[in-house]
Specification:
396 residues; alpha+beta; Lipocalin; eight-stranded antiparallel beta barrel; 17 helices; elongated
Amino acid sequence: MILWILAILLLGILGVVGFYQGAVRVGISTIGLLVAALLAVPLSGIFKFILPVTGLSHPAVIALVAPLCMYLLLLIVFKVGGVALHKKVEWYYKNKAPDTKRMLWERMNARLGICVGILNGAIYLVLICVLVYVLGYFTVPLASSPKDSVVFKVVNTLANDMQSTKMDKAVAGFVPATSFYYDSVDVLSMIFHTPLLQGRLATYPAFLSLAERPEFQELGKDLKFQEFWQGDPSLTEFRENEKMGTMINNVELYTNVVGIVQGDLKDLKTYLETGKSAKYDDDKILGKWKIEYNASLAAARKKKANMNRMEIQALMLRFSLFKDAELKAMVDKSVSLRMAPPKGSAKVFKGTWSGTGDNYTLNVGEGSTTQEIPVTVNGNKLVATKDGFSLSFSKE
């Protein structure tokens, strides 16, 4: 209903404006509306350099605001040109043309201005619907709580009206948003409404190194925040939360995430839905692996059933070094082995991995001293073997 009221108001008001301004001015505005719509996005890069000076620094905000600023700038240029042309034509008919001709021109200019003004109203309606289409794709799934701001509620109402009137199908072909935007909103919506997906998100191969950042580690351990999230907060409350607000406004973090996914979120979306990644599943070693300490120790004891007491103690001492071992293989071919023995501080040995299919080789160590460790992966199980000594890991 609101959409139809808006449409009637636009057509009516701009028809009246066209009558008083005349066909010349509103005609140039029509050209400006169309040209600006074609060039706003391609030329928006200019404002992407200017807007940070005004205090806007977040790339996501700039990506939305820059085309709008360029559109307004182009439209203003055409409107100024329309006023200048109108004055020249008006001066001619007032000072050069006969009165009869001037009167005919004024009548035609006003009446034709009504028609062109109504056309401008239709164009403005389509442009507003395009903007609502883009914003609504974000606000409808994410901002549907009564606690959200008035702006979100208005956008959601207009978006729902567009869907019920099929206007969304009419303007879909004019929407400049990319698939990256739609996939981003889909991923954010899934995570926002399903906090338990945090664990799966942290195990996505491309995000393994990102998950080790202190802010993510602290967020996962913060029980108060987890309770807040699982309490179904509104988007406004979620954004205004101290910890989450800091992360949302972190430009460096946003840039890292966008750089890691390389403009393609379809695989991440599939991974969150199914736990499978078509992009990374061929490299079976990728992921975070936790040692199966008891199983590894039991397998080592089975190799020699008649161990004496001294041999058992030596084996237990050797295995104690790997009590809480954790292996992490990342998409950049890097690998880290974290060992946290019961006594002493934890150590992290870094290196690289190579191989395909089920068989891989780890090259890890400390400083210039490295060792090659053969690894076999079978489903969610990983076995590393060196000098007859095997460690079994399971995927987290």
